[in-house]
Design brief:
Strand content of chain A: under 5%
Shape of chain A: globular
Number of helices of chain B: 7
Distance between the termini of chain B: 51 Å
Number of strands of chain A: 0
Largest interface: A-B, 106 and 76 residues
Mean pLDDT of chain A: 93
Mean pLDDT of chain B: 92
Largest sheet of chain B: none
Distance between the termini of chain A: 53 Å
Shape of chain B: extended
Low-confidence stretches of chain B: none
Structural class of chain A: mainly alpha
Oligomer: heterodimer
Order of helices and strands of chain A: HHHHHHHHHHHHH
Order of helices and strands of chain B: HHHHHHH
């Protein structure tokens, strides 16, 4: 039986899609923030893989075709952004201030934690790009001689975590403006946060997509400066 | 056919993004070049929004699914992550809340101040 899974091109994709359906179902039924469909899907897939003794390489034979769509999907973030361009122009100063403040706070936050925990330079630069989209973050980590595997892990955890806690953070800090919510999600949790922002609304989604691109590019510049500080 | 055409336009822009990445010596991924290109094409009218909209919104809607394989791959990173788990976990939690709160608060502050000025 195991040979069937081991050689299957579709196993990984099917398990992932079914797991995501389970996630959507639970989310709809209970509506708790912790029931993020992506989080549930990931836990289900890991469970299924373990139960069926399928290793990651085998799973990813099918899974990679889902990852393949990530670049085109990111390109598509230009569409909602295009449709909200007037709103962007109207709030341009606020948008720029928000993204710059967010990127700086990310760098300063990692620096503070690194000092508190007495982290080595290598681990410090590994964590610097943790809030930006995977493709850029990997490049930054490599450039600064960080540990790319850990960077990718923290980027993904940051994305899921941000989507789960967003409603709570918005309530706690009284963040109500759709533009502000969108930028906050995109800045803190990149493309995974953008999926959550799309659920909140068109404006939130568009602004989140914008933040992913701009914060990513800004981080390329600022991370190399902050890398000197520890 | 219509959806297929839309999908092919989107892949074409992704391909152009890949070409830019190969040509330009900057640490910018193909997807970000593609996003900027798509925005330029829509603005200049080279692409009408109707020519990509339906497929684009579908791809955006199913985006979380595309992260599942990478996130499942975290199990592979466990051996390098385990020794530094505590500092990495605390840093991740702290900065995620920080960035979200700072970005949202700063943006909202400027929006509301400008609104106030306009009155």
């Amino acid at each position: 039986m195991k040979d069937v899974w081991g050689n299957s091109l579709f196993f990984g994709a099917v398990v992932s899609l079914l797991a995501y359906e389970v996630g959507l179902l639970l989310k709809r039924r209970f509506r708790w923030a912790i029931l993020n469909p992506l989080l549930i899907a990931v836990i289900c897939v890991i469970g299924v893989n373990a139960a069926m003794k399928v290793d990651y390489q085998t799973y990813n034979e099918g899974g990679q075709y889902l990852s393949y769509l990530l670049t085109p999907a990111t390109v598509c973030l230009a569409v909602p952004l295009y449709e909200q361009l007037e709103l962007l122009k109207k709030h341009l100063v606020a948008v720029v201030c928000g993204i710059v403040a967010g990127v700086l706070s990310s760098m300063v936050g990692v620096l503070l934690c690194a000092i508190v925990f007495g982290l080595q330079h290598e681990l410090y630069v590994t964590l610097l790009p943790k809030s930006i989209t995977t493709a850029i973050g990997m490049g930054v980590s490599e450039e600064l001689d960080g540990i790319v595997t850990i960077t990718v892990a923290t980027i993904i955890v940051t994305g899921i975590l941000g989507s789960v806690i967003a409603d709570g953070v918005f309530a706690l800090f009284h963040i109500e403006e759709p533009v502000a919510r969108g930028l906050a999600l995109g800045n803190a949790s990149h493309a995974i946060g953008t999926s959550k922002a799309m659920e909140l609304g068109q404006v939130e989604g568009a602004m989140s997509g914008l933040a992913v691109a701009v914060a990513g590019l800004l981080t390329v510049l600022t991370a190399s400066v902050f890398a000197q500080f520890l | 056919m219509n959806l297929l055409k839309q999908f092919s336009r989107i892949l074409l822009v992704s391909l152009l993004g890949e070409i830019l990445k190969a040509v330009l010596p900057l640490p910018i991924p193909a997807s970000v070049y593609g996003l900027v290109l798509m925005l330029v094409f829509l603005r200049t009218g080279l692409l009408k929004v109707g020519q990509v909209r339906q497929a684009a919104l579908f791809l955006i809607e199913i985006m979380p699914v595309m992260f599942i394989p990478a996130a499942v791959g975290l199990t592979e990173a466990w051996s390098s992550l385990a020794p530094v788990l505590l500092p990495v976990a605390v840093t991740t939690l702290f900065t995620t809340v920080l960035v979200m709160a700072v970005t949202g608060t700063a943006t909202q502050f400027v929006i509301r101040r400008t609104k106030g000025d306009a009155k």
